[in-house]
Amino acid sequence: MELGKPLNHPLYGWDNEYGTYIENVKDFEASQMLISNGEFLQFIQDRGYEQSVYWTEEGWSWCQFKQAEMPLFWRRKPDGYWLRLVAEEIPMPWNWPVEVNYLEAKAFCNWKSAKTGQTYRLPTEAEWYRLAVHCKIPDQPAWEKAPGNINLEYCASPCPVNTFKSGDFYDVLGNVWQWTETPITGFPGFKVHSMYDDFSTPTFDGKHNLIKGGSWISTGNEATLHSRYAFRRHFYQHAGFRLVQSDEPLVIQDEPYETDMEVANSCENLWGQSAQTNFHQQLANAIRKEIKGLNQMKVLDLNADTGRLAFELAPYVKELMALDFSARFIRMPIRLQERGFMRYIVRDENDLVFYREVVLADTGLDKDTEKIKFMQDNANNLKPIYTGYDLIIAPCILEELSCPKQFLAGIHQRINEGGYLIIASDYDWERNHIKPECRPGGFKKDGEPMTSLDGIGELLSAHFSFEGNPSNLFKYEWLNSRTQLQRICEVTIWRKK
Questions:
Q1: Which Pfam families match (predicted)?
Q2: Global pTM?
C-alpha cells in the first residue's frame, strides 16, 4: 500500500497527509462490523475493567486513575444502561457502535483473544487503507451520496452497525471514527507547514494514535480518505473500533524527531549545509580527486558522526567501515541506511525550533549504501578486527582523542603497504582538555615552535611519507540560526611506505 497525498492533490490537506510511505500489508482478517455496544457489554459483564491482565500498562494506569467501570458516555440507571448523546440521553442502543478510547479498545481485543484463543488487535493505518481500497470507498467529494453515516448526510448520531455496507464490510467510512494501532508520524518527505508549525509535530511522540474513517459529524477534510488525525490514547472522540486478526506480528514504525542537541546539530552540520559550506562533502571531493584506485579500496572512517562522509564515498569504494565513539550519533546514519530518512530538531532562536527531515534519495546518496557498515568503537583503542585497510580517514578525530600521539604512533599497523592515511584537524587540543604530553604539537620544543603538523610528521615519518601539500577546509558548526562556529581544518595525506 502506498500511503500519503501527492502535493498536486486537488483537495486541501494538513501537512501530515503529504509525503510517501509504502508498506507491504500482509493478509489479515477484519470484523465485518464495528464492535457494538452489545458486544462490549460482554467485556463489562466479565469484569474486564477490574482485571489488569487485559490492559496495557498505560491502560491499567488510566483505568485505576479514572476508576472506570464502563465507557464514558454510558449511564447505569435503575432501568438499565442508557447512552449519553450530544443533546440527550436515550436507552442503550445495543446495535450502535461502542464509543471508547484506544486503551479500552485494546483491552477488549486482549480480552477477546484470551477468551477465544485467537489473536485480535486493532487495524494499522495501512490495513485501514487496504480495507477502504478493497471496499472501493470513494473519496469526498467524488460521491453523489455518502457511502456511510458521515458528513451529516443521514443522522445526528451514530446508527446501527449493520446499516451502511460497502462490499463485504460495514462502516469502513463513517458512523464513528476507528482507532488504529498506529501512532502518528510524518511520512517520508513530510515538511512542516510554516503557517501552522505546531499542528502535527507535537503529536509525533509515539503517544498519539491515529483514528481513521470519520464519524457521522465529520465534514470537509475530516471526511476524506487521506485525513490523519491523532489523539492521546486516553482521549475520547466519536470513536470506536473493529477487530483485526493476523498471523503477522504487529510492527509499529516509530520515526520521532531527534532532540539530543549534540546529535541534532551534527545532523544539521553534515546534512543541512549547502555543498559550498559542507565540510564532509568537500573532504569527500578532495579524497576522490587525490586518491587513485578508490574503487578497489577497503576504507575505514574513524569519525562517522552522523554519516555524511561514508555516504558520499560509498559509490566510489569497495567497502567502507564507519566508526564513531558514540552510538547516539551512528544510529542516525543507520536509520538513513535502513529507512531512507531521518528527522531532527535544531534551534532557530531562543525557544523557537526548526523541524528537519533528511530523505536520502533527495540527496542523491542512496546508491551503494550496502557497502557501508556503521559500528561503535574508540579510535584510541581500536579492536584488532579493524586492520588491513587501504585508506584510513581521520576527519576531525585527533582533537577528540584522549591521546592523539598514541593514536598516531600505532595507526600504521592497520593500513596495508602503499595505503593512505588522511588527517583533517583544527589542532585545537585545549577544547577537550588533552594533556600536554599527549599533544603532537602546538608548543615550543627546545625553544623552537613545534607546530601540530611538524609533530604529526615526526610521529608518522618512520612508516609514512608525506604526499603533496597541506590544504585547508572550512568547517561550520550550527548553534542556532544566528550563530555558527567556523573552524579551519588542515587536511594532509600520508602514504604508508
A1: FGE-sulfatase (PF03781)
A2: 0.73
